[in-house]
Every structure is written in C-alpha cells, then in structure tokens.
Design a protein that fits this description.
The complex is a heterodimer.
Chain A (H helix, E strand, L loop, with lengths): L2 E3 L1 H8 L5 E4 L8 H9 L5 E4 L4 H9 L3 E6 L3 E2 L3 E2 L1 H9 L6 E4 L2 H12 L4 E4 L7 H4 L3 E4 L6 E6 L5 E10 L4 E3 L6 H7 L2 E10 L9 E3 L6 E4 L17 H10 L3 H13 L7
Chain B lengths: L2 H4 L5 H11 L6 E4 L3 H12 L5 E4 L3 E4 L11 H6 L2 E2 L2 H9 L6 E4 L3 E2 L5 E2 L2 E3 L4 E4 L6 H7 L2 E5 L25 H5 L6 E5 L3 E5 L6 E6 L5 H6 L6 E8 L5 H12 L1
Parallel strand pairs in B: 1-2, 1-5, 5-10, 10-11, 13-14
Antiparallel strand pairs in B: 2-3, 3-4, 6-7, 8-9, 11-12, 12-13
Helix pairs in contact in B: 2-3, 3-9
The chains are: A alpha/beta, B alpha/beta.
Chain lengths: 272, 254
C-alpha cells in the first residue's frame, strides 16, 4: 500500500546506490523534482533507464550519477542534442558511461514484458539494422506460423519513478494526457515512487485517465510543479523556452555544473 | 518575419516544406516527428487536405495543432487529439499493423537505398558525434505503408556508406524488405531542399526525379555523396503558389 510521504523521505527509502532506476514520462509528466532529489541525496553509480533521456537524464549524467544508460532516443526534442550525454559518450566526462540502446518499440515492449513478469516480449523489428548487433535482442521463429520475429528481454527496474497529476489519500494515482509507458514502468519495477501535483480527497474520472492503484505503489509524494520544465496536462505548461535555454547552457561543463549547484544541489527542494 | 520577406520569393527550405505538404494531398493519415515534417503536415491540413489525420509518436492520434509544436508531446497535441494512447499501444496496434499510411522521417545520413542513420557519426564505440539514436524510426519505416524522407541536401547527409544503419529503407537490394519481414513499401521519396529523389522501380536505388525551381542537375549531383542516378525525364517542381506560401508563413508566425 502506498505511503503518503515527503519526497526526500520517499527517495531515501526507495532509491539506493547502484540501482537500476527507470524514471518515465514521454515528453509529458517527466519526474524532474524526484530526479533532482536523487541528485541532492548523492545517489550514484545508477543504471538509468528511460526511453527518452531528455534534460533530466542529461543533468544526472552530467553530474556523474550514472554508470549505465538504457534508452532509445537521447535528444532534446525539437531542439537538438543532449550535450552532457554527448560529452559522456564522446569524451567520458565526467565519467565513462555504458550504453544499451533500443528502438522505442523495443523499449516499450520490454517494459510491457516486465509488467507482465514475462522473460521477454516478441515483436517485429531490429532485423536488418545495426541495432540488432549492439542491443541484447535475439531472433526467433514463431512456433505457429514460422515467421521470423525478434525477442527483446523484459525490463525489470529496481525502482521506477513517475509523476502524475493526482493521488487520493489512499495513494491511488491518476494521470491523464499523454500516458507514455508510466503504468508499465511502475508495474515492471520492484519498487515504485510516484510524485503528484496534488493530493485530493477523491479521484474524479478523466477522459483517457490512467489509474494506478495505490497497492502497487510504495510511496506517493506531493511535488507541485514536479514535472517542470516538462508539464502536467491541465496544471502546468511545457516550458519550451527552458528546453531552448538548456541547449545553450549545457554545452559548457563549468556553466552546467554551476547552474546545477545553484538551482538543484544547493536548494532544499526545487523552486515551484 | 518582415513584410519584405513575407512577400519575397520562396527559400529552398520553404519549397521543401511545400513539396512535402503536397505529397499528403490524398493521404488519409501521416506519422510525423518534429521540425519541418510537422510543419509540412500542418500546412497540408491547412491548404490541401483538412481531413488528414496527424499521428505523433507521443501517442496523440488525430492531433489538430494550431501552432507548430516544439516537441512531439506538446500539450496542444494532447488537447486536440481524437485519441491518446500509450507508447506500447502506439507501436504495437497503430504503427506495427500498417494502419498509418505515410510516415515522414528525417536522418543525419541517408544512403543510396534510403537506409538511414540517426545513431552516430564515426565508429559506434568511439563516435565523433553521438546522435540521439533510433527513437521510433526503425519500426515506423518498417511498417507504415510508405515512408517519405525529409533531409537537407549535402554530401554530409547523402553518403555512400552509413556510419550506422539505424533504420532500413530498402536494405541492400530490392528483395531485402520482404526477406526482413518489413511489410510497408519503405521509402517512396526523399524530399530535399534541392530536389526529389525516388527509388528506381527495379533496383530501389535513389534516382533524381524532380528539381526544385532554380536548381540544376549538376548542383544536386554535387551535393550527393555517391554517383547519383538521374531519371530519363526529370520533372520541375511547380513553384509554391501564393496560397501555399502565405499559409506557410502565417503558420510559422503564429
């Protein structure tokens, strides 16, 4: 059953050094506040899992918190590259990072297999690409039709972290808008932490709303504005200017480090 | 944008966007990423095909954006969509099944069989430039009914050999897609800022089939990193109409 707790307490209880951590949110509902709290608490040597690393993982990689990245698209959507991610891969700064990369379809199916506690998912794809040589995937033959298919291994994060609009006092969570792979990530993990914009007495059904029952979540923490500069549909707007700003700021190691110190590490919590 | 340029002749980039939008005149649905493909698809809805269904990788199906979105997951896409689905559903039920008719894709490198690289420049283990990676491209190119590649024409992009094959276009020969189980037609056109290239029906090798206004065959061949084949008859792209250009500039000014 989900415990309603503060974000620092939730991170301290659920995220450990060396963990495989999945923080999901497909452009929408990216759990920035939780990621920043993980950095503030000095968690390190993490295996970071995320379809689209986005600015959040750029920040975590740039501060040296990750030993490995599992992903499918490491860009700043609509703006360009992720400079801290690039610096880590191209120049081992601030430390070398191991990469495991897939396509979006591969990652999505891997999460779904993890949520189902299946060892793998079966799909079409990868064949004929160089991804097939670098990703841990295996060709297989359909036992019924003989069709050549691909098996991708299940993703089983030690801990998954997602952000949602609302939770009730029993820790049941509802998110709406672009649902990404958040439900799959929560159900695939051993432990799950959900941050929410607000705690409400009762969840009101929303069109397209995804409800995650509190009893599959370990901790729910209120974090208003916790997806900024991403957004929480209906509550906050995506800060596109920040995504453009990041492209300039993050090119320089010293400017990046100073910015992170001032805006993340030296604060008790994220500014709202 | 100043009044002078709003009335001025179309830039090469504008021509590229207009040509891409025309390609969607009779399409039922189009899968798009951000940037020029998104601009072209919104323009197509404005001037050619108001019923065109826009599908974004974020899960928004039937989005009707008024502005060109910065990301594939901007709030306006979710607010205007007919349906919003999860990522597993998007790839397994909508893309993998061939339900989407046309896909627009970009890439850092394109080879003569329209295979694409969006992963690295240089060696994979020690890349000169680390690019974002595959995203949805491999399965989008595999299973949407046809693919239109949108790329800027230069020898940096149009290369004789990819540094990494992220996405299969036509593979190494015309039988490759069938052998690999890729069910869509694959790339049917590459629209650049200079020209349109289309795969030869027999060899699947990209061939110059149309030149944009003011562009010559020599210029296109020089901007291509292999000995580009030229169709026996090369068409001339009709210049953007006033309606197209005005709508495009108005859209980008919103």
């Amino acid at each position: 059953m989900a415990e309603l707790t503060s974000l620092p307490e939730a991170v301290a209880a659920l995220v450990r050094d060396g963990d495989a951590v999945a923080m999901e949110g497909f452009t929408h509902l990216i759990p920035f506040a939780a990621g920043h709290e993980i950095l503030r608490q000095g968690r390190g040597d993490l295996e970071l899992i995320r379809m689209t690393p986005d600015i959040l993982y750029d920040q975590m990689i740039g501060l040296g918190a990750a030993r490995k990245l599992v992903f499918s698209y490491g860009g700043n959507p609509g703006v360009g590259g992720l400079h801290r991610f690039r610096d880590a891969v191209e120049h081992d700064w601030p430390r070398p990072i191991e990469l495991e990369e897939h396509s979006h379809a591969g990652m999505a199916n891997r999460y779904a297999a993890g949520a189902a506690r299946m060892p793998c998912a079966i799909m079409r794809g990868y064949l004929g690409t160089d991804l097939a040589a670098i990703a841990p995937v295996a060709p297989m033959t359909c036992p019924f039709t003989g069709e050549q298919l691909i098996a991708v291994p299940a993703l089983r994060p030690a801990v998954s972290v997602v952000h949602a609009q609302e939770a009730d006092r029993a820790g049941n969570v509802q998110l709406w808008g672009i649902p990404g792979v958040q439900k799959e990530a929560v159900l695939a993990a051993d432990r799950a932490l959900v941050t929410v914009e607000r705690i409400v007495d009762e969840l009101t059904p929303r069109p397209g709303g995804v409800v995650i029952p509190g009893w599959v979540i370990d901790a729910v923490a209120e974090a208003p504005g916790g997806s900024r500069p991403s957004y929480s549909l209906g509550i906050t707007d995506r800060d596109n200017e920040f995504y453009r700003f990041w492209d300039k700021l993050s090119r320089d190691r010293d400017e990046f480090t100073a910015w992170m110190r001032e805006h993340v590490l030296d604060r008790a919590r994220d500014a709202v | 944008m100043s009044a002078a340029s709003a009335n001025g002749a179309a830039t090469a980039g504008e021509v590229q966007t207009v040509v891409a939008a025309r390609r969607l005149r009779d399409a039922t649905s189009v899968f798009i990423g951000v940037g020029r493909p998104s601009t072209a698809a919104i323009l197509a809805r404005m001037v050619h095909n108001p019923g065109l269904v826009l599908v974004y990788e974020s899960g928004t199906i039937g989005a009707k954006p008024y502005h060109v979105p910065l990301s594939i997951g901007d709030g306006e896409l979710a607010q205007t969509a007919d349906a919003i689905v999860s990522v597993p559903e998007m790839f397994n039920y909508w893309i993998g099944t061939g339900r989407v008719q046309v896909a627009f894709l970009g890439a850092a490198q394109v080879d003569r069989h329209a295979n694409l690289n969006s992963t690295v420049i240089g060696d994979y283990e020690h890349p000169r430039t680390r690019l974002p990676g595959a995203g949805g491209a491999p399965e989008i190119a595999g299973f949407c009914r046809e693919v239109v590649v949108i790329a800027t024409h230069s020898t940096r992009t149009f290369v004789s050999k990819l540094d990494f094959r992220t996405t299969v276009g036509h593979g190494d020969d015309p039988a490759d897609r069938t052998r690999l189980g890729l069910r869509g037609l694959g790339p049917t056109a590459v629209i650049t800022d200079l020209a349109v290239l289309e795969p030869d029906p027999d060899t699947c090798e990209l061939t110059l089939t149309a030149l944009h206004p003011g562009v010559g065959v020599g210029e296109v061949r020089e901007a291509t990193g292999w000995d580009l084949a030229v169709a026996s008859t090369v068409a001339h792209t009709p210049p953007p109409t006033d309606e197209e250009l005005t709508a495009l500039r108005e859209l980008l000014n919103r």
